[in-house]
Write a structure and sequence with these properties.
4-stranded antiparallel β-sheet; 23% strand; 273 residues; N-terminal domain of MutM-like DNA repair proteins; alpha+beta; globular; Helicase, Ruva Protein, domain 3; 2 domains
């Protein structure tokens, strides 16, 4: 699932290459377009002829704003959703759900291999997009100071990894980056928030900020100079997530994994307490 760092790359790339361009046509894949929560004929008609004037991210939602009457294309990629910006002549990948054909032969394509994404077209995301209005502060929002973080942590009980992934607590963190944040903080993912000391809460906050900021920079660097490869997701830089056959880069102990509900948690039993 794309999380905050990957979605920051999507926003940055779309702003650089597509902002100010006009949608000349909308191409729907009838076998995959049901991820769109909007009448398909209206979806195509309402977007055609519109100029893209804003691209933003809120948590794990990406929002495209168009000129004219207030209109937002809101994309929640979920597990298998990916974004692609390509020349019109580039071959279309089988998982493509829809394409926005911009002027000067530039295509924005949304792909989803699992068909779990949610796509909305609305003038009011807060009221029309489920869970959007309930989002907590963005994980990299400057207003999310340690004091705000600590106060919110006291109100969210349970295992710390589940709390980090709770978009009502803070928005933008999913399964992969919560593993990385907890590894950096030396905290076991199954610890309950009520057991964290003041020092551990501060360490967790610092780890959250540093891991996400460093990851945003790393993801951007991975794709620097490449031709809009947004549909690919390279997490080879991660230190512990998805590395169950490796050893801890900090202490050399074997990395442990827990599998539950179709997702996996990775941590070090030796140096995460």
């Amino acid at each position: 699932m794309p999380e905050l760092p990957e979605l920051e790359l999507v926003v940055k790339t779309m702003r650089e290459h597509a902002l100010g361009r006009t949608v000349q046509a909308v191409v729907l894949n009838p076998k995959r377009a049901f991820v769109i929560r909007h009448p398909l004929e209206d979806f195509a008609r309402e977007l055609t002829g519109r100029k893209l004037v804003a691209v933003d991210r809120r948590g794990k939602f990406v929002l495209f704003g168009f000129a004219g009457e207030a209109l937002h294309l809101v994309i929640y990629a979920m597990l298998g959703g990916r974004f692609a910006l390509a020349s019109r002549a580039a071959p279309e990948l089988p998982a493509t759900c829809f394409t926005l054909q911009f002027d000067r032969a530039l295509d924005f394509r949304f792909l989803d291999s699992t068909m779990g994404a949610r796509i909305y077209l609305t003038d009011s995301p807060e009221s029309d997009v489920p869970s959007f209005g309930e989002l907590g502060p963005d994980a990299l929002d400057p207003a999310l100071t340690f004091d705000v973080f600590a106060a919110r942590l006291k109100r969210h009980r349970g295992e710390i990894k589940n709390v980090l992934r709770n978009q009502v607590f803070v928005a933008g963190i999913g399964n992969a980056y919560s593993d990385e944040i907890l590894f950096a903080a030396r905290i076991r993912p199954l610890r309950r928030t009520s057991t964290l000391s003041e020092d551990e809460r501060k360490t967790l906050y610092d780890a959250l900020r540093s891991v996400l900021r460093d990851s945003v920079a790393t993801v951007a660097q991975q794709y620097a100079g490449k031709h809009h490869p947004l549909h690919k997701q390279d997490r080879s830089f991660m230190k512990i997530h998805a590395r169950s056959k490796s050893v801890c880069p900090r202490c050399g102990h074997r990395i442990s994994s827990i599998h539950s509900g179709g997702e996996s948690t990775y941590y070090c039993r030796e140096c995460q307490r």
